Amino acid sequence: HFFEFLPSSASRADDATRLAHQLDVGQQYEVVVTTGGGLYRYLLRDVVEVVGHVNQCTLLRFVVSNDRVSDLVGEKLNESHVSRVLQQVCRTHEVKSRFSMVVPVANPAGYRLYLEVDVRQPLLASKADFLCDVEAGLRENPHYQYALELGQLQPLELRIVDHTQRG
Predict the structure, then answer these.
(1) Model's pTM, two decimal places?
(2) Which helix (H) or strand (E) holds 136?
(3) What's the Cα-to-Cα distance from 60 to each of 25, 49, 51, 54, 121, rounded to whole Å?
């Protein structure tokens, strides 16, 4: 079998494949395999991270299966990227979210973030800043950024769900 690696979509600056000895420690890659049985350049949708090298052998850690993708207009939002962005923004804004979910909205095309928090948290005072930071994180995906620039997607919406209202 023969393996090639593409920089993961969250950090892809180019689409050039790399061989194992060309991978950078700390970076994430998608795996492309060609098998001895004739399967040619099959994208596995697995993301691996390079954790080091032993002699000339690259050490990889499985990160996630990359097939959890939402794609309304070509933006290819990946669950792991969205999750990473939400975790970072919640840490930055000191928001303790009990539940979050980004859902696609068909008409007009876009995404809505549902965030379950206690409404007494200071998030409501800085809702616009929080949303702006989430949107900036999602824009790290060049396909998402491009779809917004073209007007194919509406900016992200935020809906706060107050967990104290549960019965």
Answers:
(1) 0.60
(2) helix 127-138
(3) 9, 5, 6, 11, 40
